[in-house]
Amino acid sequence: MSDETRPNVRGQMLPGIAGISMFMIFMTMLNAYAALRGSFGNGTAKYGVLAMCSLLAVGIFGLLRLKKWGWALVTAGCLLLSVGDFFYFEKTHAGFFLVRGLFDLMFFLYLARTEVRERLL
């Protein structure tokens, strides 16, 4: 379609964006809680996870407002979570990490689509 016949979709949220945001805020809360309980250690890793969770939470709320910076933070967060889950699957062979990593990778690929990017403000 040419640009003249295409309807203006800027500022209109897709249902997938809302679903991804709900999943990612849930994962952010779980990781922040685990970091505060000491699951990632008590040193640099704990504060690194808390910093990443804070950035991802800010990005999620930016994505819900359809801001480009929010989209960038959540897209990077999906990719990093996917890589981390695949790493843990390689080390532990726990199927949970493989399934969660595939979901995160699927969310990353969805957010990278042109239809999603052209709706951002």
From TrEMBL:
Transmembrane intervals: 12-35, 47-64, 71-89, 95-112
Keywords: Membrane, Transmembrane, Transmembrane helix
Domain of life: Bacteria
Name of the protein described by the UniProt record: Uncharacterized protein
Organism: Edaphobacter acidisoli
